[in-house]
Amino acid sequence: MEIERKFLVAAIPAGLESFPSSKIEQGYLSTEPVLRIRQKDTRYIFTYKSAGLMSREEIEVPLTQSAYIHLIPKCDGNLISKIRYRIPEEHGYTIEFDVFQGCYQGLLIAEIEFPSEEEALSFQPPTWLGCEVTKEASFHNSTLSSADPKEILQLAAKRLKEFKN
User: Fold this and answer.
1) Torsion over CA of 27, 29, 34 and 38, rounded to 10 degrees?
2) 28 is catalytic
3) pLDDT digits (tens, 9 = 90+) for 40-57
4) What b-and-e string marks burial along 5-41, b requiring 16 or more CB atoms within 10 Å of the CB?
5) Which of 4, 30, 141, 148 supports an S-S bond with 35, CB 3.0-4.6 Å?
6) Which CATH number is 156's domain given?
7) pTM greater than 0.85 (yes/no)
């Protein structure tokens, strides 16, 4: 079970380069159900995710590089490229901070995974995380794979502006 909260971030935090990171490329074979392939550094992963916004089932199995390369042309829409930084949070959680590249250059999204919904709901995020979008499907990677990048970037800018006001 994956339980996470998601936030739009307005700016890259200072010292980001000092945290561990991974280069990620992923594509979607289907968005209902979510069937994703991902290259994370030198690892290749096939993922199934059930429906849901904050909580959903997630199953991952390893792929070979050749299987990944074979499946890439079968993906629908946009390939998503990002660098994911893992930032420790004071309560023991890890903030996964995604700096998007390619067609979503400039999009900054942070996610925090929790062991239970109770912990997720009681978590008080640091202010730098910005605007919470956990329940906005527009900012799920599966949606980004089929959306118009310009529209998503405009929506992100609008949501962050509303949040600041």
Assistant:
1) -30
2) yes
3) 999 999 999 988 877 889
4) bbbbbeeebeeeeeeebeebbbbbbebeebbbbbbee
5) 30
6) 2.40.320.10
7) yes
Neighbours of 54 (CB within 10 A): 15
d(Cα 2, Cα 84) in Å, to the nearest integer? 17
47: closest CA among 18, 19, 20, 26?
26
Using CA atoms, how far apart are residues 23 and 43, in angstroms rounded to an integer?
A: 10
Q: Look at residue 29 and give its three-state secondary structure.
A: strand
Q: Which of 28, 85, 93, 104 is catalytic?
A: 28
Q: How far apart are CA 74 and CA 15, in angstroms?
A: 38
Beta bridge partners of 21: 85
Pairing between β-strand 2-8 and β-strand 131-132 as defined by DSSP bridges: antiparallel
**For the segment 67-91, what is each residue's pLDDT rounded down to a tens digit?**
999 999 999 999 999 999 999 998 8
Q: What is the domain count for the chain?
A: 1
Q: Show the tokens assigned to 146.
A: 């089929």
Residue 88 is part of which domain span?
2-164
Helix (H) or strand (E) holding 59: strand 58-62
